[in-house]
Design goal:
Elements lengths: L7 H37 L3 H30 L1
Helix pairs in contact: 1-2
C-alpha cells in the first residue's frame, strides 16, 4: 500500500468526528447519571422543585443519549 492511496481528508474527518461523538456520548450519559443521582438526593431531603429540575435534566440527557445511539447505529447500517 502506498501513501498515495490514503485519502488524508477522510482520515482526518474520521478522527475528529469520532472524537466529538465520543465526547458528546460521555457528556450526555454523565448528565443522565448526575440527574438521576441528584434528583433522588433532593427528593429524600424534600426539595421537590430541585428534584424535579434534576429529573428533567436526566430525561433530556437520556433522550439525547438514546437518540445519538440510534443515529449512530443507523449510520453504521446504511
Amino acid at each position: 500500500m502506498t501513501l498515495a492511496a490514503i485519502d488524508w481528508g477522510q482520515l482526518f474527518e474520521l478522527v475528529w468526528v469520532s472524537a466529538v461523538a465520543g465526547f458528546l456520548v460521555s457528556l450526555t450519559f454523565s448528565g443522565l447519571i448526575l440527574g438521576v443521582a441528584k434528583a433522588e438526593e433532593h427528593r429524600q431531603r424534600a426539595r421537590h422543585a430541585v428534584a424535579s429540575a434534576y429529573a428533567v435534566v436526566a430525561v433530556i440527557s437520556g433522550l439525547v443519549f438514546v437518540g445519538g445511539v440510534v443515529f449512530a447505529i443507523s449510520v453504521i447500517v446504511s
